[in-house]
Write a structure and sequence with these properties.
Blueprint lengths: L4 E5 L9 H16 L3 E5 L11 H9 L2 E5 L5 H8 L5 E6 L6 H14 L5 E4 L2 H8 L6 E2 L21 E6 L10 H15 L2 E6 L9 E4 L3 H10 L2 E4 L10 H8 L4 E4 L13 E2 L4 H14 L1 H12 L5 H12 L13
């Protein structure tokens, strides 16, 4: 396949760690470049400049493939791209919108853009069902952990007495269920003398939680590798996937996620819990890890194979194929 120009649109900056969305775009970009393609990322901070920035307009008009991530958040870039020459549009749909007014707007926007797409990707079955209700078919590919995250070279069964929470968004993202973190932190400390460590944005203070703030990738990998477990007690359908759980599993670290997380669709039931039972299940997991950690840590590593980097390569292959073939995932009026 000859070299292509690929424009990737995203509503957040990708110069720093930015959760699943940023990880997704950065991994795809690295794989495109490895295969010899030219890639430009147009992030949300460029939106106000689009109509005066000739370079970005030129990019929109010259790209062979336009890949939008959550395109409603990049409305101006979407508009410029769709009025350019006939192009190949790929859309990744990551999570439902969070309010009725926004949902109504999003439905309207879908009619303008999604029907032009050659390929629509999504990371969970529930998101595919959301799109299906709007007469849009999507190809499901789960997210992946970067190959940077892997089990420690030393004995992976030697763990330190802490449970990890990793989050890259602020306190206004209430679906992350920060209030429950304090409750779990208190239980872990009083019952097991285990610390709950929170890594990520530090614009709030939670009792019974040790805040580390943002850390570099090497430190994050170390924290994954040495933690007893990682928890993700998110609420509702707005936790699009939960990439941190995949990264922890890649380090052979057991996870416990709520059944509201997208990744829960793919996990063994041992690693998933309804929120009403989350506290009890976490305590049982910690007891197992103290008494006999080997089986559970081995189970976590086997689970990680569902989220291998091969998912990234498969996604790239589909996107590149869409430039030459109409795969039929997104075509058709709504």
């Amino acid at each position: 396949m000859s070299s292509m120009k690929i424009a990737q649109y995203i509503d957040i900056p990708v110069t720093r760690r930015a959760g699943g969305v940023g990880t997704y775009i950065k991994s795809l970009t690295r794989e495109f470049v490895r295969l010899g393609h030219d890639v430009v990322i147009i992030d949300g901070f460029n939106r106000p400049k689009l109509f005066s920035n000739r370079h970005l307009v030129k990019v929109c008009k010259s790209a062979n493939i336009h890949h939008f991530h959550e395109p409603s958040s990049a409305l101006l870039t979407s508009y410029i791209a769709t009025i350019s020459k006939p192009i190949n549009i790929v859309i990744t749909f990551h999570a439902p919108v969070s309010s009725r007014p926004l949902e109504s707007f999003y439905s309207l926007f879908m009619r303008l853009l999604y029907r032009k797409a050659h390929l629509i990707l999504t990371t969970t079955k529930r998101n595919a069902e959301y799109l299906k209700q709007k007469k849009i078919r999507a190809c499901i590919i789960p997210l992946w952990a970067d190959e940077f995250f892997k089990p420690a070279d030393s004995n992976r069964y030697l763990r330190e007495p802490y449970v990890l929470s990793v989050c890259a968004v602020d306190k206004f993202h209430r679906y992350k269920n920060y209030r429950m973190l304090s409750k779990l932190g208190k239980i872990l400390k009083e019952k097991f003398n285990v610390t709950l460590i929170h890594v990520g944005v530090h614009d709030f203070d939670l009792p019974w939680v040790n805040h580390y703030g943002p850390v570099d990738r090497q430190t994050l990998r170390y924290l994954y590798q040495k933690a007893l477990a990682l928890i993700l007690p998110s609420i509702g359908p707005y936790e699009g996937f939960g990439i941190v759980a995949a990264e922890a599993l890649a380090c052979a670290t057991p996870v416990l996620v709520s059944d509201g997380c997208g990744i829960s669709e793919f996990l063994d039931s041992y690693f998933v819990s309804p929120l009403l039972n989350f506290e009890k299940k976490l305590c049982l997991m910690v007891k197992d890890l103290f008494s006999n950690p080997h089986p559970l840590i081995d189970k976590a590593y086997r689970e990680s194979l569902k989220f291998s980097y091969e998912n990234c390569r498969k996604t790239v292959k589909l996107i590149l194929s869409s430039a030459n073939h109409d795969l039929g995932y997104g075509k058709g009026k709504l």
